[in-house]
Amino acid sequence: MKKLLIQGADVLQCESDRCRILRCHDLHIEGNRITAVAPSESAAAAPDVEVIPARGLLAAPGLINTHAHVPMGIFRGLAEDVDIETWFNEYMWPLEANLTAEDVYWGMQLGLAEMISAGVTAVADHYFHMDRAAAAVDRAGTRAALGWAVFGSQGALGVARTASFAEDYCGAADGRITTWLAPHAPYTCDDVFLAAVAAEAERLGLGIHIHAAETAGQTEASLAARGRTPIGVLADAGVLDRPTILAHCCGVTAADIELMASLPCGVAHAPKTYLKLAMGAAPVLEMRAAGIPVGLASDGPVSNNTLDILESLRLMAMVAKHEAGDPRTLPVGAALTIATRESAQVFGMPDDLGHLAPGFLADVILIDLGGAHNQPAHDPAANLVYSTRASDVRTVICDGRVIMRDRRLLTLDLEEIKARVGESVTRLSQRVPEARIQLYRP
Amino acid sequence: MKKLLIQGADVLQCESDRCRILRCHDLHIEGNRITAVAPSESAAAAPDVEVIPARGLLAAPGLINTHAHVPMGIFRGLAEDVDIETWFNEYMWPLEANLTAEDVYWGMQLGLAEMISAGVTAVADHYFHMDRAAAAVDRAGTRAALGWAVFGSQGALGVARTASFAEDYCGAADGRITTWLAPHAPYTCDDVFLAAVAAEAERLGLGIHIHAAETAGQTEASLAARGRTPIGVLADAGVLDRPTILAHCCGVTAADIELMASLPCGVAHAPKTYLKLAMGAAPVLEMRAAGIPVGLASDGPVSNNTLDILESLRLMAMVAKHEAGDPRTLPVGAALTIATRESAQVFGMPDDLGHLAPGFLADVILIDLGGAHNQPAHDPAANLVYSTRASDVRTVICDGRVIMRDRRLLTLDLEEIKARVGESVTRLSQRVPEARIQLYRP
Fold first, then answer.
1. Which of A375, A403, A417 to mutate to test the interface with B (most CBs of B within 10 A)?
2. Which domain holds residue B273?
3. Which residues pair with A378 in a beta bridge?
4. For chain B, is the Cβ count within 10 Å smaller at the N or the C terminus?
């Protein structure tokens, strides 16, 4: 079994809203798991051990993106400064009429390259042509929870589409891929469709990844049209009986939170999208107080416009302070616990990811705090939340394998990816309103 | 006269809330001024011209930071998750009891290194021991508007301190340094002190840089104690008859805005500090609608915790959308106009900075949009606001001189700076409450 030794790093560990840094420790890895974390030894490593010198670097768990539409990066910058209805109906859904399976393959690689460079080793992705997304993940060496997005208008074929992908690709890429069924949202899926997806998820023993209560407006519209909130709709359809990733939840009510707390769901939190599209603020504090896990997310790179989880981390903490009117809200330790342990929980792997300790999977990033913007490093944890940039991530290990070393990508060819995406730019940027793939009318 | 040719760049120009990109243009520079911007020519440059190849790079005006306390970077991370009163009284002011002139010299260099690396070529800095800050600016090759901060408790000596520095250093560093008188804030300066500073500013023909109406709470406290808002206090003291940089203004009233619009003041806007310290949101739209120029700012790196103006730009646009509840608010063109032309106006150099056109000073940054997080570059202007990172800045020219080339700093020695700051870290991090330099009690 392959052995890796990360030598002399300052190791970040988070637990129950507190974090600590173990100065100058060694991380021992065998195969794809961490076997030991111990004070650094000066003795030479055994000859069969690959050593990664990490003195002066901060070792953190690989970042987890709990909700994205990664391949949408190919449309980045094409839908700016518009309201959410226009964003869907005049931009995204007409643009996505252009989408081919190969666009997804190269768009996914582009986004994976961006995420690896930013220390993100795992992503819960919700999009189309996910067989091609899985091929990109296999190539990149990262971890992903993939769901093939479907709409109620697709009927039984849609249910079969998302279920058969989930069945076929569960455990793919040497186990680095998990799968989730992925109905789009309560406002694009009727009750019968949602119940059918929930039944398939139960049959397969899998979870469901869905947009829910994205704005207060959606909740009001749902109450008016269906007499229940979006969360109520999902609960009635049996969706929430499955492990569920609920994306956004800016529009959940107090009663929704009480209900959610009794069910196996987690919330994917993408604060940059909420600011940029003026969707309101998600009740992060209230949901966490009720015991609902919250994970960091980017959302798609057309609303974000990046896949940068360090930026999501910072915005989450700052918006929480702003909304509460109290700068003591969501302190550094809580923010980093969300970014690590709690994101792993939302991602469905609480005992395997988000922590650098024996028994956990070896998804590790090494961060260089030597840049002027991080100096002096009085408090590396505070730096990580408020000063560090994605570009400070130097080396990335996923599943026990080095996939970026000293900022050089080892699994993906960015120049090739840019060339292939570049060939399609003109075609991709033509909006085809008459062929829009859905209509936003919550 | 030294000649520089930036060849084949995509040149960003902003005007009246719109921006355009001139594809593949040459920027001609003689001495410290831009002499021409024209479609790129393939002909070889004359032998006395230094050529900077910039094909595929975005050329933008050097970024301007209209309000900071740059040397505070030496305290970065030492005051997290505390309310504003505690931030001042238990952290910053007891910490600043440790401050020496040499700390300012090395802290200023640290911050200038950070800013150059992030494309910031000009800063309006408001701090202590500013003779040493000026020496650092001279060495760095950047531009600065410096003010020596003084408190009312210093009496006539304080007035003389800020005035004599402003008089002595106006035009220093080959004209790259302008000076401003710098009383701290209405809540730390009484009416007599403010009037004395205003009189000195008038005598010297210089402007005033001051904190004002930082929060709604300060405005309420001022009304209770002095019967006037902080803006009213400054107007009555004659401060606002001078060109003025007003930092923050989250707590200005509608009447304040009307008054400010008739006076030669600009507002420095530092949105990251407002979020992080829960200070509220500044009325950027209302101030601009009244004709008051708004410039981007970082504030000090203990509240920010960086000096990253691209981050301020992004936060300004996103918070404006969030607060207005409308994503059409402050679109890309307006945000970039604030970042360029309007920041130059607040900085006091509207006809010299913030625009890449003949006659303007040659402060130019070259940005590489080739990273995965900026690709494909459907809309480079949107990228600049929402996707670009400080680390994408490749080359920086200030006053016609290259001060960073391909990310290598040419004027400052970061390793030396880190070593010198590092020597003082233990001494600097000891809080001395009994020696706090002021008491926050607005």
1. A375
2. 63-346
3. none
4. N
In chain B, % of residues over pLDDT 70: 100
Stated as kind and residue range, the H or E segment containing B304 is none
Complex confidence, ipTM: 0.97
Same domain flag for B155 and B294:
yes
Instruction: Give me the pLDDT at residue A98, please.
Output: 87
3-state secondary structure A165-227: HHHHHCCCCCCCEEEEEEECCHHHCCHHHHHHHHHHHHHHCCEEEEEECCCHHHHHHHHHHHC
Comparing C-alpha atoms, which of B248, B242, B253 is closest to residue B272? Answer: B248
* Residue B14, φ and ψ in degrees, nearest 5: -120, 150
Q: How many residues does chain A have?
A: 442
Name the amino acid, one letter, at B320: A
Res A219: pLDDT? 98
Please give, rounded to a whole number of angstroms, the shortest distance from the CA of B168 to a CA of chain A.
30
pTM (two decimals): 0.98
Chain A contact set for B307 (CB, 8 A): 373
Among candidates B76, B326, B390 on the partner chain, residue whose Cβ is nearest the Cβ of A83: B326
Beta bridge partners of residue A120, listed in sequence order: A63
Q: Which residue of A has its CA nearest to B308?
A: A373
CB-based contacts of A125, cutoff 8 Å, min separation 6: A68, A69, A70, A108, A133, A144, A145, A146, A147
Q: What is the pLDDT of residue B1?
A: 87
**Chain B residues whose beta carbon lies within 8 Å of the beta carbon of residue A277:** 321, 327
Comparing CB atoms, the residue among B307, B375, B391 nearest residue A391 is B391
Q: Are residues A77 and A188 located together in one domain of the fold?
A: yes
Task: Pick the residue from chain A with its C-alpha nearest to B116.
Answer: A372
CB A427 within 8 A of CB A107: no
Could you tell me if residue B170 is left (phi over 0), alpha (psi between -120 and 50 degrees) or otherwise beta?
A: beta
Residue A260 pLDDT: 98
Give residue for tokens 């120009």. Answer: B13
Could you tell me the sign of the dihedral formed by the alpha carbons of B182, B186, B187, B189, in that order?
positive
CATH number of the domain at B173, please: 3.20.20.140
- A86: tokens are 């226009």
Q: Which of A78, A82, A117 sits opposite B328 (nearest CB)?
A: A82
Report whether pLDDT(B316) > 90: yes
How many structural domains comprise chain B? 2
The CATH number of the domain where A380 resides is what?
A: 2.30.40.10
Q: Name the residue facing B276 among A117, A318, A379 (closest C-beta).
A: A318
Residue B439 lies inside a defined structural domain of this protein: no
How many C-beta neighbours within 10 Å does residue A86 have? Answer: 15
Pairing of strands B401-405, B393-398: antiparallel
pLDDT digits over B343-384, tens only? Answer: 999 999 999 999 999 999 999 999 999 999 999 999 999 999
